[in-house]
Design goal:
This protein is of the alpha/beta class. It contains 16 helices and 21 strands. The strands form four sheets. An eight-stranded parallel beta barrel has the order 1-2-3-12-13-14-15-16, surrounded by nine helices. Helix 1 links the parallel strand 1 (13-17) and strand 2.
């Protein structure tokens, strides 16, 4: 048991975004006690000095066993925005105005806007609808000129400086990693963060660019989560999944970039296709949006979380709800309770997945894990035990989506952090890791009994190694706890 909390048995993990609503160590621990597994830092807004202090608190509590929180840096990515304005501008439906593509010709006239995407004049087309301020303001392109677009307001809006712009249907001529991203990634490596969520991934080459940069910095151990936020990312999904460690269904920008009615289909397909490659998935954005201001969610939000769990996503994420909302801890409580309710109704369906990226020994262990899951469920055992120095075996077990908890034991805190994102995996640190596997088994059993996860008489299936003739041979074993 974690001191001061009751262990929440849920398979689907929760990511919470840090921000001004989280005040110091007590709030971080309250998030953990409510069911949070990973803390996300949004580097569209985060400051290095603030994040460093939060990471110190997280590491201290991870080391002393009070918490087990992973650290995720979310890059800003190559965004497109309007320019600076001296004051907000009001538009009415039908207003026609200039949308400048060349900053040196832009001047405020009460209605004109500037777009910092330099290829807008080349890529836009007459009749296209451009989304401004995350879709709150839509303008239709009437005519394309050398230095500006003539556009018509499709609705009324009040627009200020530096508003986000989406260009649905356009294959953007933008880098995978911006200069700001490079600075932030360097910070992630220096601070030994666990995950990097890469924004606006459009191809596997973007992921490979990040992986190569991490290797150059000595941070190749950091796991890469690719955020799918536009049609190009959807079109190139197979290659992106192959190149990534996990995928985030980033529904905010994606819901603007693609026809909104297609969003549920894309979400379902992304979870399915990512799982088919044995990778992890995160569903994000607008999950409990109303709880930024209100102490209780809408019925639709609860149903959204429920359906995301039923799709067997590894994790769900809270953004502004915990970063700047009035009810951050309550939001996590609602999410945890909904996850637990949904998981009562999941019908286990084990599907095999790709062997891509696995060596012969991994494939051998994957087969044993599959056998252990089927046999364990048929015999009604209480848990599956896995011993791993990294996180790979736990990832393989998780990808089968077993209907019994996976207790994964490791000697490394960083491996615990990686496994925090995996469905159904409860990572445990064995501090006195022994080269004799039988000693690790006894340590693991004692650890689970101390945390009241298992008791005498419970049975477990374990995937383990024995030494024979100087070699490690994997095996599956049924054990009863004494």
């Amino acid at each position: 048991m974690t001191p001061g909390s009751e262990f929440i048995m849920k398979n689907t993990k929760i990511i919470a975004t840090h921000g001004p609503a989280i005040s110091g160590e007590s709030d971080l621990l309250a998030l953990y006690d409510a069911g949070v597994n990973i803390i996300r830092f949004n580097f569209s807004h985060a400051r290095y000095d603030v994040v460093r202090e939060v990471l110190k608190i997280m590491r201290k509590n991870n080391r002393n066993g009070r918490a087990a929180l992973s650290m995720l840096l979310d890059t800003k990515g190559p965004e497109i925005r309007t320019g600076d304005l001296s004051m907000k501008q009001e538009y009415k439906t039908g207003d026609v105005f200039k949308f400048y593509t060349d900053k040196k010709y832009f001047s405020e006239d009460g209605s004109a806007l500037f777009c910092d995407y330099p290829y807008l004049g080349e890529d836009a087309f007459e009749g296209q609808v451009i989304d401004v301020d995350s879709g709150l303001f839509q303008v239709k392109v009437l005519k394309i000129h050398d230095t500006y677009l003539e556009v018509e307001a499709q609705n009324g809006a009040l627009i200020g400086s530096r508003r986000h712009i989406n260009l649905p249907g356009i294959r953007l001529k933008m880098p995978g990693i911006t200069e700001k991203d490079r600075e932030d990634i360097r910070f992630a490596v220096e601070e030994s963060m666990d995950f990097i969520a890469m924004s606006f991934v459009r191809s596997k080459e973007h992921v490979e660019e990040l992986r190569n940069y991490l290797k150059e910095l000595g941070g190749e151990q950091i796991k890469i989560i690719s955020k799918i936020e536009n049609q190009e990312g959807i079109d190139n999904l197979t290659g992106i999944i192959e190149a990534s460690d996990g995928i985030m269904v980033a529904r905010g920008d994606l819901g603007i970039e693609v026809p909104i009615e297609k969003l549920p289909t894309y979400q379902s397909n992304m979870v399915r296709d990512t799982l088919a490659q044995g990778k992890f998935t995160i569903i994000a954005t607008h999950m409990l949006e109303s709880m930024i201001e209100n102490p209780s969610p809408t019925r639709a939000e609860v149903s959204d979380i429920y359906n995301s769990v039923m799709q067997r996503s590894d994790a769900v994420m809270l953004s502004w709800e915990t970063a700047a909302g009035k009810y951050p801890i309550q939001s996590v409580n609602v999410m945890s309770a909904t996850i637990c309710e949904a998981e009562k109704n999941i019908i286990p369906q084990h599907k095999d997945f790709s062997n891509a990226g696995l060596n012969s020994r991994d494939i051998e262990k994957k087969s044993l894990i599959k056998s252990a899951i089927y046999a364990g469920e048929e015999m009604g055992v209480q848990a599956l035990f896995i011993f791993t120095k990294s996180w790979k075996l736990a990832r393989l077990a998780s990808s089968f989506r077993p209907n019994l908890p996976i207790y994964a034991f490791t000697m490394h805190l960083q491996s615990v952090a990686y496994m925090n994102v995996l469905y159904g995996v409860y990572p445990q640190l064995i501090e006195n890791w022994d080269q004799e596997f039988i000693e690790n088994i006894y340590s693991a059993i004692d650890l689970c009994k101390a945390k009241k996860l298992l008791k005498a008489g419970d049975r477990i299936m374990l995937v383990n190694d024995i030494r024979k003739g100087g070699k490690e041979i994997p095996l599956v074993e049924l054990m009863e706890i004494t």
